[in-house]
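seq as requested:
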Amino acid sequence: MRKSIKNNSLLNKVLKTSITFVVFLILFYISLNFLMGKIIHNGKDVVVPNLIGSNLENAYKALMEHELYLQKEGKQFNSNIPKGNIISQKPLPGTMVKPGRSIRVIISSGSEKIVVPDLVGKPERKAEIILRQSGLSLGDKTESYSVSLKKGLVIMHDPEADTHVEKGTPISLLISKGLTKHGALMPDFIGEKITMAERIVSAMGLSIEDISTEVNDDLEEGTIIEQSREPNTIVHLNNTLSFVITVQSKTIASYIKEIYFEVSQGLLDKHVRIIVSDKIGDREVYNKMQEPGSKIDIDVPVKGKAKAYIYINEVLVSEREL
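struct tokens:
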């Protein structure tokens, strides 16, 4: 009996000690948190930097200097802020906050892209409504007679259907002035891109027979410099058109061509001059006095189709394809 009482007393003592220790730990934890909170909240306030327009890398660096953190809250389309840069932030720039605070930001997804709808053949008024509903705007409107579309219908538009453009982009319309038995008026394509001319010609019900090129490094490649039909003249459904467009010299393939020529016999030396004509233009590639019966064998770099013109004493004696 005495042994049982002694054991119970020991157990109670252990329990009391354990409970006291647990209470001590809880009080210690609460006191520690309280003290840490006091230390943090008594820290010096910092100024929130301006992150708007910054990319994430620069934003992280700026916040680290102020012992602040970045928290991304979402993305939005924005035509003024590049994709991946910050549109807005909370708290605002200049706000005083405690170190350790998170700054919430919205990231730009760039300009919203819209697919241009197909407006060809639609009435002018309906085309304008479709543009507005699509988030696009109306650009320039011009008119032309058509051999296939009635008055008031859209012949073509620029940019063309299925092109991805930014929201609010103006779309130019070419509207039919009506059908004409006499044909349609030939547009003035000089200075325009051939891709645009091809769309307009197709929409008018006409066709292009030939497109030739001419080297011109001063104009953008594909610019029309000649057209077979004069502007504002009547063209008919069975008429075909041709254009001359520019091409950059760097895009024309280069070839090495051999020019071989034997100088005719005689008593006196002869002045030999060779002119090469290719896509680059005309240029002199040989100009020397030659003995009678001598041979000329030279390699000449050319671009595109080329011809060689050989002159003896300034008289053309040979013309050959290279």
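The helical segments are 2-41, 56-65, 124-133, 194-203.
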